[in-house]
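Re: that backbone. Tokens:
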């Protein structure tokens, strides 16, 4: 049950804020049909995402890892931004320059909803990258590469190669143990430093360094509010936790 008094308090902080930074995680896309990592639906071919989303798995069996990513590309292409993504994009449209969205998500649903001031911490599901020269091969609009033999959908997709150096392409996302895109954390910290409120939506807050942004904000005396269907790791750090689905709470928070 949503606590209306707390919702009104957070609405007041946001209404009075000169700048708002929003940190999002997989939970904001759950109502669009994208499975979260640590919830139900996080499994694929009986493997957890931790077994697939790492460089060692890719070195061992790149086709198996690609099969998972091509499946996710297809699945996300079929999903639409939900009321929470749209409320953030409309807020920016009404008040350009007053909001920055920092996302851990790779699904581009913020951009598809119309958000422009967006910082991606963990890369982009639709920007394949060469393991050699690093050239990015965008695939936002192109259809995913299916199995080599379409009559056998369980077959792994063929590996694609870089048009510049002919080495293998990898998913353009950040795996455990890898650095985040250059400047992404600094840009996120800069946005938070010029904000009065940090709104943290749909993240378990267990993955570093993204989760450290909440501690950073709280130490900088910025009001921190979480929106989540359950309590998280971050709750001791924040000023207010709003329990409920993002698709309901975020439009209400930003309507003032
Ligand atoms: C709803 C909802 C609804 C559901 N409405 N809410 C310091 C201490 C300890 C460890 C480390 C440390 N520093 C670095 C590390 C190591 C590591 C790390 O953090 N490990 C932890 C697991 C302990 N971090 C890294 O390796 C990072 N790199 C790095 O630090 O580089 C420097 C370095 C290098 C070498 C050595 C040391 C340092 C990189 C992290 C990359 C994370 N990558 C992934 C995969 C991306 C690719 C892909 O998509 O395939 O990113 S992991 C996965 O977790 C994904 C997500 O972005 C990320 C966060 O998950 P998120 O978004 O929070 O999702 P969930 O599923 O956890 O939570 C969903 C939430 O939504 C839940 O709370 C629900 O309740 C809620 N919810 N429905 C509102 N309708
Ligand atoms: Zn290359």
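Recovered sequence:
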């Amino acid at each position: 049950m949503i606590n209306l008094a707390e919702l009104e308090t957070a609405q007041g902080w946001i209404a009075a804020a000169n700048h708002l930074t929003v940190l999002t995680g997989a939970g904001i896309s759950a109502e669009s049909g994208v499975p979260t990592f640590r919830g139900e639906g996080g499994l694929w071919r009986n493997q957890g995402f931790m077994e697939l989303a790492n460089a060692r798995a890719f070195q061992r069996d790149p086709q198996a890892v690609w099969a998972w990513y091509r499946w996710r590309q297809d699945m996300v292409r079929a999903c639409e931004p939900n009321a929470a993504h749209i409320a953030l994009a409309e807020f920016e449209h009404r008040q350009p320059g007053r909001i920055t969205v920092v996302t851990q998500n790779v699904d581009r649903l913020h951009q598809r909803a119309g958000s422009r001031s967006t910082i991606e911490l963990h890369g982009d599901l639709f920007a394949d990258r060469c393991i050699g020269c690093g050239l990015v091969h965008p695939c936002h609009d192109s259809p995913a590469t299916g199995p080599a033999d379409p009559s056998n959908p369980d077959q792994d997709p063929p590996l694609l190669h870089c048009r510049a150096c002919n080495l293998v392409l990898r998913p353009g996302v950040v795996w455990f143990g890898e650095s985040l895109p250059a400047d992404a954390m600094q840009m996120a910290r800069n946005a938070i430093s010029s904000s009065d409120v940090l709104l943290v939506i749909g993240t378990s807050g267990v993955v570093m360094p993204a989760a450290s942004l909440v501690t950073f904000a709280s130490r900088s005396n910025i009001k921190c509010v979480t929106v989540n269907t359950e309590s998280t790791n971050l709750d001791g750090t924040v000023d207010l936790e709003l329990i409920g689905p993002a698709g309901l709470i975020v439009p209400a928070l930003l309507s003032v």
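The two ends are 21 Å apart (CA to CA). The CA atoms of residues 93 and 115 lie 8 Å apart.
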